[in-house]
Specification:
single chain; 622 residues; alpha/beta; Rossmann fold; 12-stranded mixed β-sheet; 38% helix; elongated; binds adenosine-5'-diphosphate; binds magnesium ion
């Protein structure tokens, strides 16, 4: 019996041994097979650290953007605006081996697996409050920034193939690829933990290529501008700001606004006033900060203004214009004849260079012009011309002056002459021209590295006066920058970098005004063009970008766009501001105060930025 059993066991043993041997043979065979097929299957390295895959294209697919799908636990790795690298499979795996860089422009969205998000079962259960939570995955739309070839980004010739691996860039690499470095910190990129967005203060293609800060009231423009000025100053740029409302006149103090203080603390920033601020206000006008430590009154020189710009600013009719220009010509003759200018050979030579489209006649005062126009009006009206002449040179040489007028052919119609006289009288009464009690603006100081000049125009109550001031100071700055440029050492960059902020720019440069005042606009355009080389950057700030003509927007290469709700305005900006994708444009109407789309020549692509709160004090104006 036992023997039987034993033989049974032996049999079994031998069978199992045979089986094991067999199976070992089998595994060997399999190994051989694997060997033959090129080794054991391993997930490619690219797949291991990828977080998603490129989807197949649908007929709705658009050039330059691909859909990327990812598991739900990876959604948090691709926030809006983040950068990803897309690697196609290697040619052995059926890909083309290309590598692309892209940015998330839509999403991340969450979609249920295997069901449409609007499937009846999803809707019904949600509405009935039942717990039906299908598993879901993420979807993002990625715009292709370029193909990476040997580390550089080139325009793509193809698009990523389906199933290509997608991997987010690290913060450090994102910062580098987006070119976020610079001395002028604007704020933090939205969508990232802590990614500061900076722009360089010294590059020629940023500030000297001009900047527009646009957005509705309350969007955050003034906060942005004041912060910007602080940063520019710290990096040695001189700034000049035309402050129509007196909002910036306390910038030298630190902010005491509770929300700002809280926001500053959250970002680890400290409140502080802007240094080296000088506050200018027109002679005879109030300032909204009489206690400012460095406060100066200034006056304008009539001779700096082109007669053509003056006539535009005065808004003269054609008939009045003709008489104004005639009067100007006679005044010029008188100034020359009395040797007020030119008084020597050097000045005579200067006269040859004079361009009256750009500047007035040297040493001619508004009072000179007024006196002559008055004699003209009296003469045409056949009234006695024994009126008192207020300019001292004309008073002393009455006969000679009268002779100049009397020997000229004057256009008739005393009414028009009197109108011109009236316009000039109003200008005279402002006492802002050629006023001995207040000097001209100190352009030397204004263009010194790091200095800040605020031109407080809050008490002028007149866009005309503001425009006179802005155009004269812009011209003064350009002339000074010409000198600074010539004075620099051969081959060296200019030391005096200047940024000029024009608040309420639509008042100065609206389409309407550009039409009424083509000469003035031509001057600004010239300043903008010449400013590029001479480092005079213009910063236009306005809540009414619709009033800025294309000619002005066309001068600007950098934009900070706060909330804009008007779709007509957005459409127009779309045509002017390149590079911003639809995903960003769509966000423009809903931006929170302090958020802005920044499109700067230095940045690789426009970015949504949460602008830093300002460390300095802004005056509340209503
Ligand atoms: N960068 C910012 N951070 C925090 N709050 C801001 C920021 N910008 C604006 N705000 C808020 O919005 C308000 C209006 O901003 P402001 O700069 O005066 O706008 P605008 O000049 O466009 O009218 C501020 O008083 C502040 O409360
Ligand atoms: Mg403002």
């Amino acid at each position: 019996m036992f023997g039987e059993k034993n033989s049974e066991n032996e049999k079994l043993n031998s069978i199992s041994t045979a089986l094991i041997e067999d199976s070992e043979n089998g595994f060997d065979l399999l190994d051989d097979e694997i060997e033959l097929a090129g080794g054991e299957w391993e997930e490619p390295e690219d797949a291991q650290d990828s977080i998603g895959r490129v989807m197949y294209d649908t007929p709705a697919a658009k050039d330059n953007t691909v859909t990327v799908l990812l598991p739900s636990d990876k959604i948090s790795e691709v926030p809006s605006q983040s950068l990803v690298r897309i690697k196609c499979k290697s040619p052995e795996d059926g890909g083309d081996g290309r590598c692309y860089l892209g940015a998330v422009v839509q999403g991340p969205f969450a979609e249920p697996d295997g069901l449409r998000a609007d499937a009846p079962i999803v809707i019904t259960t949600t509405v009935r409050g039942t717990q039906f939570t299908p598993r879901y995955h993420g979807r993002v739309q990625v715009e292709i920034l370029g193909e990476e070839i040997d580390g550089s980004l080139v325009p793509p010739r193809f698009r990523p193939l389906p199933n290509s691996y997608v991997k987010p860039l690290s913060s450090a690499e994102t910062e580098e690829k987006l070119k976020l470095a610079g001395e002028v910190r604007l704020g933090l990129a939205v969508g990232y933990e802590n990614m500061p967005v900076n722009i360089p203060s010294s590059r020629k293609d940023v500030f000297p290529r001009h900047l527009a800060v646009l957005g509705t009231t309350g969007g955050g423009k003034s906060t942005t501008v004041s912060g910007l000025i602080g940063k520019l100053t710290e990096s040695g740029v001189a700034t000049v700001l035309f402050d129509t409302e007196g909002e910036y006149t306390r910038m030298m103090e630190q902010t005491d606004d509770v929300t700002m203080l809280k926001e500053l603390a959250r970002r680890g920033l400290t409140p502080k006033g802007v240094e080296n601020v000088t506050l200018y206000h027109l002679v005879g006008r109030e300032t909204s900060n009489p206690a400012a430590p460095r406060r100066k009154q200034f006056s304008l020189s009539f001779s700096n203004l082109s007669p053509y710009a003056v006539k535009e600013i005065l808004g003269l009719t054609d008939a009045q214009e003709e008489r104004f220009l005639k009067g100007y010509e006679l005044t010029r003759n008188a100034v020359m004849q009395l040797r007020i200018f030119p008084s020597n050979d050097e000045e005579k030579a200067q006269l040859l260079e004079l361009d009256e489209m750009e500047e007035g006649f040297p040493r001619m005062t508004l009072q000179h012009l007024y006196d002559i126009i008055r004699i003209c009006a009296d003469t045409v009206a056949k009234e006695p011309t024994q009126t008192f002449l207020k300019s001292k040179e004309f008073f002393a040489n009455r006969e000679a002056v009268e002779k100049i007028v009397h020997t000229a052919t004057l256009p008739p119609n005393f009414f028009s002459w009197r109108k011109v006289q009236g316009s000039l009288a109003r200008l005279l009464r402002l006492k802002i021209f050629d006023n001995d009690t207040a000097p001209a603006p100190d352009y030397d100081r204004m263009t010194k590295p790091g200095n800040v000049t605020i031109i407080d125009l809050s008490d002028t109550d007149s866009p005309q006066v503001n425009n006179l001031v802005i155009s004269e100071i812009l011209r003064g700055l350009l002339l000074k920058q010409n000198d600074n440029y010539d004075a620099r050492l051969e081959g060296e960059p200019i030391k005096n970098r200047v940024a000029v902020v024009i608040e309420e720019a639509h008042e100065f440069l609206s389409a309407e005004r550009v039409r009424q005042m083509p000469v003035l606009f031509q001057q600004v355009a010239r300043i903008a063009r010449r400013g590029r080389k001479r480092w005079l950057g213009l910063i236009f700030v306005t809540q009414l970008p619709q009033h800025l003509p294309n000619e002005v927007l066309g001068l600007v290469n950098n934009f900070i766009l706060h909330k804009i709700s008007d779709s007509g305005v957005i459409d127009r900006l779309k045509r002017t501001v390149g590079m911003i994708d639809d995903g960003l444009w769509n966000r423009l109407p809903n931006l929170a105060p302090g958020q802005a789309i920044v499109s700067a020549s230095s940045l690789a692509r426009p970015l949504l930025v949460s602008i830093d709160p300002t460390p300095c004090k802004l005056r509340m104006v209503d």
